[in-house]
From TrEMBL:
It comes from Indibacter alkaliphilus (strain CCUG 57479 / KCTC 22604 / LW1). Residues 1-240 form the Fe/B12 periplasmic-binding domain. PROSITE patterns: FE_B12_PBP (PS50983). This is Iron transport protein. It comes from the Bacteria. InterPro entries: ABC_Transporter_SBP, ABC_transptr_periplasmic_BD.
Length: 266
């Protein structure tokens, strides 16, 4: 690996953990020529002479330029678990780690079935609204998104009724949906509490706001979304005697990071 996205270094919520997994990151030795979704420094990427660049499919212009230099690009943007699995396997094939990719997918499928067995008994579901990272409280995940699959796994209802991936909404819609719980990842509770236009909402008034932190353990863009589902289930319905969150987190992180995962719990 010759380059990573820049915000791995600049986001203090996740830098600590990436540094524990890879000492080169802790020492800031790996080049960081841009970010996942935008602002990639193409000259710096080309200078690294990579055999393969993995980047968001939305950077179509950057992809075209890199390919014109003869650099292979694998464009990704999973909106559901099936797409994520296909892309993970594709990365494994392209990087000569197909066996490990298939191992990760098998581990994930086993854990998802295990989680679903423990959360599928809910009949009266709590309604949940998820606000995007970085304080984007009116950007959410619709019913064709990975977060919707997370909600389904957790046994809760997605407050957003739109059958699309990433809708932007207005305050009036959010108030009308009246969710039981507001969810945040890589954002602060104050982002919601300081929104005066939402002060009449029941979830806001009662501070039924849950922040997934440390953010590293709950990244909804990765396989770690299964741990997010476990915690969401407990937030919504209280302790489940069949679930040990701490033990599940260690099992999931060990499955994903193998021996390196021990560094995350020191």
């Amino acid at each position: 690996m010759v380059g990573i996205q820049h915000n791995i270094y600049t986001n203090p919520e996740t830098f600590k953990y990436f540094g524990l997994l890879d000492p080169r990151i802790a020492r800031r030795e790996i080049a960081a020529p841009g970010n996942w979704e935008n602002s990639t420094n193409l000259e710096s990427v080309v200078a690294l002479k990579p055999d393969l660049v993995i980047m968001a499919s939305g950077q179509s212009g950057a992809i075209e330029i890199l390919e014109s230099f003869g650099i292979a690009v694998f464009a990704v943007s999973p909106s559901n678990n099936e797409q994520l699995y296909e892309e993970l396997l594709g990365i494994g094939i392209l990087t000569g780690t197909e066996s490990r990719a298939r191992e990760l997918l098998g581990f994930t499928e086993t854990k998802l079935l295990e989680i679903r067995e423990k959360t599928s008994h809910i009949n009266k579901k709590k309604k949940v609204y998820y606000a995007w990272s970085g304080g984007r409280i009116y950007s959410t995940s619709g019913r064709s998104s990975r977060m919707h699959e997370c909600f389904d796994l957790a046994g809760v209802e997605n407050a957003c009724p739109f059958d699309i991936d990433t809708p932007n909404i207005n305050p009036e819609s959010l108030i009308a949906w009246d969710p039981d719980i507001m969810l945040l990842w890589n954002s602060k509770q104050e982002d919601l509490l300081n929104a005066r236009e939402l002060s009449s909402m029941r979830a806001i008034a009662e501070k039924n706001i849950h922040v997934f932190e440390p953010a590293f353990f709950y990244d909804p863009h990765t396989l770690k979304i299964m741990y997010m589902a476990l915690e969401l289930h407990e937030v919504a319905y209280g302790d489940n005697p069949e679930l040990d969150l701490d033990e599940f987190r260690k099992e999931i992180m060990t499955g994903l990071y193998e021996e390196k995962a021990k560094q995350l719990f020191l």
